Amino acid sequence: MSDAPSESKEGSNTTQGSGFSERSGEVMNKLNETLSKIDWTQMGKYGKAAGIVAIVILAQVLIKIVIDTINFFPILPGLLELLGVVVLCQWCWQNLTTSEKRNAVVEKVQNLRQEYLG
User: Fold this and answer.
1) Residue scoring higher pLDDT (4 or 30)
2) Structural domain range at position 81
3) What pLDDT score does 17 carry?
4) Distances (CA, A) of 84 to 44, 81, 88, 109
5) Is the same domain home to 96 and 84?
């Protein structure tokens, strides 16, 4: 008798999972229909600004999720820090070992500064 209820619970779990995917599919279809009815040519600068803000917020949320996932693994943040130190040391070795290379780096920075700041 105790086996029968567990089987029905397992069957209901799979039904709930497929019900969720069906409901999410219906929501996405309704969302797509609603978005296709909008006349996007009428959107002015305020609509574009709101869209840009929404995209930036979404990107920030996704970046936070990725960073939280990386921090979830105990060894990965330490390895990424080590990788940063190795890359920095390699760049310094390639660009700062002689006075000619240092002068070239300073010249590049000054050129970029003049180009962007005027």
Assistant:
1) 30
2) 75-118
3) 52
4) 43, 5, 6, 21
5) yes
